[in-house]
Amino acid sequence: MLRYRNRARGFQVAGALLMGTVLAAGCASDPSDPLAGDGATDSVVVGSANFPENVLLAEIYAQALEAGDIAVQRQYNIGSREIYFGEIERGSISLLPEYNGALLAFIDDSSEARTTDEINDELRALLPGGLTILDSAPAENKDSLVVTEDTAERFSLETIADLAPVAGELTIGAASEFEVRQQGIIGLRQVYGVEFGEFVTTDNSGPLTISALERGDIDVANIYSTDPSLATRPFVSLDDTDAVFGSQNITPLVAEGAFDANAESIVNDVSARLTTTVLTDLLSAVVTDRRDVDDVAQEWLSNEGLIG
Hints:
The chain is an alpha/beta fold. 41% of the residues lie in helices and 16% in strands.
């Protein structure tokens, strides 16, 4: 049986310090309430989940919209999908950068869609009334299971399937929602027969997860595939041969009626320029080089000719 520990509380102070760069992009309204608006009705509200890449993507879309003379409110670091999805349904958020495969799994965990087009077709059919998606970016960021080189060598690990006979001896670290997601512990058990000995709650593919893996506090980590640590540390990302994590294109989730044709065109133009390589480089500038999110977003948009 999977044992469960919550280390997130012990990591809170360090996590808050390390997230400082991301929070510099901040919310335009009361920072004590990430969902409190300023009462304006003629602006769009761009939101984000609570991890660096999503904040960066939100800021990119926000600046592009502002360059098109569209008033924008920012509501960043709201939380996980389980938290922010209800806010979008209620109309508190106009746009949030999503990951199409994970969003579909959240809505219908029995879906067998795998390609970008299949996933997006199902999303448009299944999303609650009042919500839709805009064009997907070529860029993808997937969940991945990562081990150290030493662990990979010790247990002869190359693929997620290789974990099945040894997972009972191993501890996995991830955000709490990973334990209850189809594209998480549930899917790993159903698809690969992987049953970890222990689940430790860390953070959402952030510095706490990476540090825990480096120190040996956990044996396996859920780290996003665009994370710069995968290229700079002695880590091995295990191949997802049966695609439990599916396609994960960056895909804006929007409230219908919040955007006119001009705003949709602006967002779609941004998405078309976002490749996985571009996203990885931009995220490295934020996470590794500790640059401000708004500066990184502005520089890229300017270089692409998307803002003046």
